[in-house]
Amino acid sequence: PTAWVGRAYVLPEYYHPTAWVGRNAVKFLATYNLSQPFMLKVSFHRPHSPYDPPQRVMDLYNQSTMPDPYVGSNWDERYAVKYSKQPDPGIWCGDVGTDTVKHSRQAYYGSVTFVDEWIGLILATLEDRGWLEKTLILFAADHGDMIGDHYHFRKGYPYEGSAHIPMLVRWPDLLTESEGGKIGVSRGITCQLPVEIRDIFPTFLDAAGVKPAQKVDGQSLLDLLQSQKSGTSWREWIDLEHDICYNVTNHWNALTDGHTKYVFEAYFADEQLFDLDNDPHEMTNLAGNSEWQSSLELWRSRMIKQFQEEGRGPEWVSPDGKKLVQRIKGQLYSPNYPKVN
């Protein structure tokens, strides 16, 4: 099940979903013999729950050395549900005890390591074929996992454990300026500007020299790698959004530039503001702090402006344009979402 409980995989390692995906990716690369370039998407399901790595990988970690879950100082108490007995594996929030959380983390770490092993084998196969220096490699995830932080489990939240995902890019020399490409920086840099999953598609189009037939969401990461040197403009912040997930109270909108994060909890009409530079684990909600009111108003106005520009209407923004509207029910929004009559 898609649960917060950690346990070792019960079948032989060969049958684990991570091994199946990795094995087939390696096979594709090892046997590919067409003349045209390939594009290969390797989509590992894990470390998404269930947290079930092979026993040998889980044993690489010790439950006692796993980090304790983060607990906020003034905002996450409402999620600390107490259970009189072992809770259902499908719960999305609650206080299940530090030891139980650390056991889940042991299994989660093992799941990440098992994926990492197969990524190493994929890279080794590229190198064996002589393609490592000819291939654009991008590693990302569609979400993280709270694993007990702030009494939350799994995905679908605006908080760092769930929403702050990896985005790693390794580019071949043929995409650099010296070879006529756009990239003007050296490998090994870390960039603090905000990127998102929507940037992946335009990045691949750009690398292939293809211009999209129409405007697409996202920006090419090759422009960002160029901008480190040339000063090309990049977005200041990104928006995050999730409709109801697990529970009617869990739907929200958020904005972040990687330094500050603003969250609007739609069901409660509550605001949250986090100083990620000094509070990276979101321990303190600053929305009620008088010293942060100007920042709160700035981020709120940015969200209001976005909703207005998107034409979301009075169900999202008050008629006077000054407030975000409480939303008890979920509301799907996308210009491309199928309309239901």
Give structural notes.
- The structure is a single chain.
- The chain is of the alpha+beta class and 341 residues long.
- Helix content is 26%, strand content 9%.
- It has a four-stranded antiparallel sheet, covered by helices on one side. A two-stranded antiparallel ribbon has the order 1-2.
- A hairpin with a 4-residue loop joins strand 5 (260-265) and strand 6 (270-275).
- Helix 1 (17-31) runs parallel beside helix 3 (98-128).
- The longest helix is centred in the first third of the chain and has 31 residues, at 98-128.
- 28% of the residues are buried.
Summary, kept brief:
This protein has 341 residues and is of the alpha+beta class.
Strand order of the largest sheet: 3-4-5-6
Radius of gyration: 22 Å
Order of SSEs = HHHEHEHHEEEEH
Count helical runs.
7
For the sheet with most strands, the description reads: 4 strands, antiparallel
Oligomer: single chain
Helix content, binned percent = 25-40%
* Contiguous runs where pLDDT drops below 50 for at least 5 residues: none
